[in-house]
Each structure stands twice: as structure tokens, then as C-alpha cells.
Hints:
The structure holds 2 protein chains of 2 kinds.
Chain A (H helix, E strand, L loop, with lengths): L2 E3 L3 H6 L1 H13 L15 H4 L4 H15 L4 E4 L2 H18 L2 H10 L3 E3 H8 L12 E4 L3 H7 L4 H7 L5 E3 L14 H4 L1 H18 L3 E4 L2 H13 L5 E4 H6 L6
Parallel strand pairs in A: 1-2, 2-3, 4-5, 4-6, 6-7
Chain B lengths: L10 H9 L2 H23 L4 H17 L1 H14 L3 E5 L2 H14 L4 E4 L3 H5 L2 H7 L3 E4 L2 H8 L16 H15 L11 H18 L2 E4 L3 E3 L4 E6 L3 H7 L3 E7 L3 E2 L5 H12 L7 E5 L10 E7 L3 H5 L15 H5 L1 H6 L10 H12 L4 H5 L9 H5 L6 H15 L9 H17 L2 H21 L2 E2 L5 E3 L7 H4 L4 E2 L6 H8 L5
Parallel strand pairs in B: 1-10, 2-3, 2-4, 4-7, 5-8, 7-10
Antiparallel strand pairs in B: 5-6, 6-9, 11-12, 12-13
Helix pairs in contact in B: 3-12, 9-10, 16-19
Amino acid sequence: MRVALQITCVNDAMFPDTGKAVVRLLRRLGVDVDFPGAQTCCGQPMVNTGYLDEAVPVVRAFVDAFAGYDAIVTPSGSCAGSARHQHSIVAERSGDPALVAAVAETAPRTYELTEFLVDVLGVTDVGAYFPHRVTYHPTCHSLRMLGVGDRPRRLLEAVRGIELVELPNATECCGFGGTFALKNADTSIAMGADKARHVRDTGAEVLVAGDNSCLMHIGGMLSRQRAGVRVMHLAEILAATEGAA
Amino acid sequence: MSGTFVGMPAFPTAAREALADTQQRRNLAHATRTIRDKRAAVVAEVEDWEGLRLAGAAVKEAALRDLATHLETLEESLTRAGAIVHWARDAEEACAIVAQVARDHGVDEVVKVKSMATGEIGLNEALEAEGIAAWETDLAELIVQLGDDLPSHILVPAIHRNRAEIREIFRRRMGDVGRPAPEALTDDPGVLAGAAREHLREKFLRAKVAVSGANFAVADTGTLVVVESEGNGRMCLTLPEVLVSVVGIEKVVATWSDLDAMLRLLPRSSTGERMNPYTSTWSGVTPGDGPQEVHVVLLDNGRTRALADDVGRQALRCIRCSACLNVCPVYERVGGHAYGSVYPGPIGAILNPLLHGVSDEQTASLPYASSLCGACFEVCPVRIDIPSVLVDQRAAVVDSHRGDRVPRSGSHWQEAVAMKAAAWTFSDSRRLRWAERASGLAGRVIGRFSRTTLPGGRAAAGRLPGPAAGWTGARDLPAPPPESFREWWDRTDGGRS
């Protein structure tokens, strides 16, 4: 099986440690993951702001970079959702039948990390060790666009040493929403303030989620409040092992 | 006329003001949570809720697919049953028809059943201009009307008010328009409802003409259906001599049996009840029983515009249950007024632009009034994929300005430039590599001067000026790392060396 890592533009430029963690984790599980260097972004920032024409060359770059892979794994529910549910819209808009056909190939092969681990590799215990008090925020797109369900939770529950605590109102949006965070900053912050409050109420030292963009928002608020909670991508916890954690 | 409240600012501005209303924030948080929990409990009782949703969506979809035929059938059935059918292209025509009926009967007042369509067309204001008072008889609509307020929710338009505020409105205003509130009025919900009942009773008994909407219009039997909780609707639909119903053309369903799924979906989704207390159905005129003159105004007002939209037409399936409002994290915090329309919340954010287009800035701001979290789609009883329609309407907004010689505003110009720059950068990985090198340098600079450390030890930017202020006003921003992932991969052969 040829497996490619779709790092996502946000992780590539801002959170490279998440990508390194995915590589470490997948290698430990026997998957020799590839990083096609021609990849850029999934196009979601343009699509969700209404700039569909601008998204066409970006989606083209995506399908070119990932053509021929059996699985495209991404540590982002949002980007997986974009590839699976929005690329076809962009391709239709382009009027290019070749792009439509290429998207039909890549879209169903794109997996969010926990889907790949649980559904394709069939593992929930990835041999991780993380002796900290952790609470998990299920991001909206992983939950409602992809339907990852309890996969992340099952993976976390199998981590040794972890103390997993329930996040109140967990399934409510954190208020990030891509360009929403800027275009409607006040509302975004009001939502984030409530999410940050719920996180603090758990007494956790680490907030974990499967999307660094949401974590950048919640974590940015927690940091501003000097709340004493750090945010981590799920991949980094799953990659952690005894001695390394 | 536009479909939105005149003079409303665009959503971000209206939302900013609403977010500062602490009383409203508390009222909304409490009310939406209560109704959300009730809905979740009664939906969980249904064995195959998803099957029921699919059935409901199919009923509405079938009706919309062949709308012209069903409307003609409805007109025939209604006419056969003794009703007088009118067609209204827009709000102005619909209001004129209702006013004419009132004038024909020489009345200066009508009683009203809660109706979204009449709110949409601004009927009360239009009648007032003709010297005809329109009395709202639904408790929440009465509160809004007496308070010179605007509705902020589809189902519970006074959701932004608490009982202390309602008591104050009743005490201050009831006496101006009829029977005053009793001296001993408290803020006990039962006492407040009792005062409203006394106040409304004289209006019910006096009125010659009633105005309603309809939740459904059954084509094959010519039956209109009103679903309600308080019984005020039943009073309006049975006591007066004349009844005028303003019905959006998307309310049509083909057959009586189509009501089966709809009447099971609606109460559970809206009030969180297994069955609503009052369901009134009437087919034209029944001699000696109820109104003896029945008018039905079939209203377009942008619906055929929405119907022509391939992605957006699913919004016409909406049965106005409000489940999407109650579950929406944006609505819960800003309330309904910020949307500037009788249709607020997620459904309003797509319905208003679909009905009226996106040429004015207020309506054009609505598709962006969402974080695209998808909670609305999850609860919609007729499976309207609201997030997808929101994105499609955002594209409609952007497309409508592609030919502009002069940018709409500075921030829109910035956005368009940023999106084009991002598209250019993301079209070729070599360009992205350069951009990441630049951001890595910026990260080093921020790292050197930053006095903010993220939990875990990473340097961050605190408050930044310019467009970044929108982010950093309340959120620290991690400094970009000196090395991007792809640079690391290349340098270390993917961590192997």
C-alpha cells in the first residue's frame, strides 16, 4: 500500500512537529509514509470564503501531488473533509472533466489520521505513553463532516498513563471557522471564550484535538488568559512513547 | 421591499453590539439550552429518526420538483371548497390583497395567528399605514408587538426577553391598546399568560377578520394546516367571519398523507414535544361552521428565485421549526436581531440571500455569519445541508463582485487580494516553499522580540497591528517555526538521517 502524508498548509508552516509525529507514529506501525513534495493546500480557505475560481488551481495541485497513492493521510479533520466533500464542487466549477475525474480518484482515498489508524490499519492501541491529565475537543468537521465518531477517543483511551477527562459541551464549535475567526472576530472570540472556560473547568493540563487550526484559536485564548493549559495535536500524544514523553 | 429590517448594519457590526447585551446573552443561553435538551430527548425516542428525516425531505423535495402542478391543483381544490385564491408576486402585492379584504369588510382591526410569511412581508406595518390595526395573538408575538420590538427567533420571537422584562412590557403597554394588565401582575409565567389571555379575549370576540399563515397546504384536498401550542390560533381560525391566509408557495405538499411525516417531524424539532397541543386544518368554507369567507394568498416573494438555484433550492424545504437556531453557537451568542430579518439563525443566513439576492451589504454578510460547524444540518428535520448552501452563497457574494471596478470596501479588497495571493502561492509548491522561508524569518524576528511564551514554551506574538489585530486582539499567535515541515523532510530525508 502506497501511503502519502498530506501535511496541510497550516501544519507545514506553523506546526511541523505534528507532521513529524505522524511520520514517527506511522513508521512505528509499519507504514512507510511518503511526503509528496509537490503538495500545497487543500483549498479550503478559498472555498469557504467563497473564492471558488481561486481554489481551482489549488485543487489541481492537490490531485497532481497525490495521484497514484492508495491512501492520503492527513492530521486534520477539516482538510480531509475539504478533500472528500468540497473538491468535487471546485472541480465541477472548473468545467474540466479531467479534474473531475482526478478528484473522484483522490477524494475517497483521503483519510483523517484516526480514520486511517482505526479503519485501515485496524489499530486502537498504538503503543503510546503519555502520563498527563488530558481533555479532548472533537472538532466540528471531524465530527459532523467526516463522522469520525469515537475513533479518537478509543485511540486516546488506549494510551498508557493518560488521565482522560470529559470536556463539558464538547461537541459545540470552538468558534474558529477559518476566515470566520477574522470576518466575525467578536462572535468567534465569544464562542472561544466559552470553549476555553469549559477546558479550564476540567482541570486538564493538555487540550487535545485532531485539528491544529482549532487548537491555534482555543490555545491562543488560553495562552492570553495565562490559563496554564497547553494544546497538543492528537498525533503528538499518539506518537509519544515511554522515555520520549 | 427588501426582505430584511430596514437600516440594519451588516452582521459583524450588529453582532458586536448584540454580544455586549449581557441580559440577552444570559436569556438566550438559558432558553436555547432548555429547548435543545428537550428536542434531543424526544428525537431520541423515535426509533428511526433518520428514516423519518429522509421521508420528510422526500415529501418536500417531491412537492418542489413539480411545484407549478401542485400549486394549480391546490388552487383548484381550494376554489372547489369555496375559498378565494389570490396570487402575490411580492410583499407589496400580498399586503395590498390583505388590506383590500379588510377594507371590503369595513374593519379597522384584524387578529393574527403567528405567521412567518406575514412577518416577512411586513404586513402589520402595511396595514397600519392603511389605518388597520393588526393584533398579534401569539403570546411571544404579543410581547414583541407591545414592546415595539423585533422578533429574534422563528418559533419563540421573544426568546431574548426574560419574564421580568415581559412583566414590565405588559404593565407599561397593555393599557394603551386594550385591557390593561392587572394591578397584581407578577413575573410568574402562569400569571403573565393569564394577563395575556384576558387582554386578548376581547380582541378575539370582537374581530371580524383574522389573518393567518399556514404550516402546510395540501394540494389534493385544498387543506391548510396551522400547528400551534396556545390555542390562540384556533380562536382566530374559527371565531371571525372572514379569514385571510398568506401562504408561501413552498408550503404545498401533494397529498393529505404527506402530512404524516411532517406532523411527526415538526413538533419534536421545534418545541421539543411529541405532539403539539393544537393542529387546525380547514378546507375552504364549511357552511355554518367557522369563517364563511376564506381567502388564500399564495406568495412568491423570491421563492421562485430560490427555486432556480440548484444548490440553494433545498432551503425551500424548510418547515420553520427553528431547530437550527437553537443548536447554532453563533445564534446562541448574538441572538436573532443581528441577522436583520424575521428569519434569523442558520436558515436565515441562507434563506434571505436566496430570496432576495446578495446585492445589499447586510444580506451579503449573512452567509458569512457561521463557523460552518454543521450542527444545523445535523438537526434539520428535512435535511437541508445548510453549511453547503452557506458556502455556495458565499461564492454567490464573491462572484457578484468579480467585475467591480471599485472595491466594496477596504476590508473586502484586502480579502480578495489575500485570497488571490494565497491561490497563487498554493498553486505551486515552489512558491509555497519561498513563502514558508519568509514566514520562518518572520518567526525568528518574532521569537527575538516576543515577550509572550505559549504554554509549553513556544514563542508567540501578542497584540499585532493591522489586519492581524482581528486575531491577536484576544488570541496569542504562535510564532512561525524557523523550519517548515517540508524543509525538515528535505533536510533529514523524512527523519531517516
